[in-house]
Amino acid sequence: TNALMEGTQPAAAASTSDPLPFYGEHQAGIVTPAQDRLHFVSFDVITKKRDELIDMLQEWTASAARMTQGKDSGTFGAVGGAIEAPPDDTGEALGLPASGLTITIGFGPSLFDDRFGLAAKKPGALADLPKFPGEDLLPEISGGDICVQACAHDPQVAVHAVRNLARIGFGKVSVRWSQLGFGRTSSTSRAQSTARNLMGFKDGTNNLKLEDASMLKQQLWVAPGDGPAWMSGGSYMVTRKIRMNIETWDRTSLSEQQQIFGRDKGEGAPLGKKHEFDELDFAAKNPDGTPVIAIDAHVRLAHPSTHGNAHLLRRGYNYVDGSDGLGRLDAGLFFIAYQRDPRKQFVPVQMELSRKDPLNEYIKHVSSGLFACPPGLRDAGDYWGRTLFA
Ligand SMILES: C=CC1=C(C)c2cc3[nH]c(cc4nc(cc5[nH]c(cc1n2)c(C)c5CCC(=O)O)C(CCC(=O)O)=C4C)c(C)c3C=C
Ligand SMILES: [Fe+2]
């Protein structure tokens, strides 16, 4: 396919239990067709020693190379090592297949302070996000020095991956926050059907997809000359935990719900059209002269034509963290988006949404993350952060 010729990851494994390639020009887990499950974790680095941090990243890379291929985290494994020592794998994935596991790393703005001599390497694109109207961010579940996005078709496999990286990082990093997600809310390949978010709408119809090779080059991957050379072939990740006021939404009429998004709930078709992938027609008018797709419909506000052709590769997940003690589901969307430069992509889109989107009556942004995801790993001699620490 075009995508393969461009050097991106292959479309999909034959089955959801198969392994996906770990090495490549770009990190796996970005254009990789979105798996069903997520365990996302953000770490603070607690060691003050640069060498210790590099050693840990090398150990993480070796472990991730193994786990993504369905192997134990370490060479001895859960039960093959000395009986007197803690095993180099925690064991809960023994007997489970690779399940399409991808492990993607990102470096947060706070890593580029004066602790590790990285200040001069901080990309401009990693500038802190502005404050958006209406957000209510909790610092304890926001930010972090290093993030890991583990995606798989089996939640136990994703959790196993994060747990073993945390185990390896003991004493060097500490978990700042983490998030489980189920039910992808985006497709990142035309081979996938569009899944639904917890508001019941198809989500990810007009997403950047792995088949759009020239768009990915223009909108997703950092190019030489964009900023520091170490990020070439990488991408910037924005995370937003968006709590939904589910019970209020569920008392809203179908017509109001559809007006808010600008698409119908059954098919996901643009209002005024029949099929999901029909073009949005923002000029179409009802007989009374009002626009068929409201002026403040979510898809109009978020559309590239509203933002100098800024696209995002969305890769979010539904989450339910139980209920909140008031009988309401503690649920929503763990939004993840990749892009070439958040200052030109996520920021203007979110600024528009935060000011005008009627969806804001039903949602609240409670956590935020911004991470620089370096390029892919070449081979077993490579490690996460090589280009940064070189
Ligand atoms: C800043 C970026 C975005 C945030 C935050 C966001 C939150 C959010 N979105 C939905 C549901 C839908 N979004 C849809 C489309 C859509 N959303 C964004 C961006 C953000 N959404 C973009 C760029 C687009 C595509 C617009 C286009 O070009 O057509 C849709 C429609 C289906 C689709 O195309 O994906 C839905 C549904 C929720 C529930 C939510 C916060 C909780
Ligand atoms: Fe959206």
From TrEMBL:
It catalyses: heme b + 2 H(+) = protoporphyrin IX + Fe(2+). Its EC number is 1.11.1.-. It is found in: Cell envelope. Residues 27-182 form the Dyp-type peroxidase N-terminal domain. InterPro entries: Dimeric_a/b-barrel, Dyp_perox_C, Dyp_perox_N, Dyp_peroxidase, EfeB/EfeN, TAT_signal. Residues 194-376 form the Dyp-type peroxidase C-terminal domain. Binds 1 heme b (iron(II)-protoporphyrin IX) group non-covalently per subunit. Belongs to the DyP-type peroxidase family. Involved in the recovery of exogenous heme iron. Extracts iron from heme while preserving the protoporphyrin ring intact. This is Deferrochelatase.
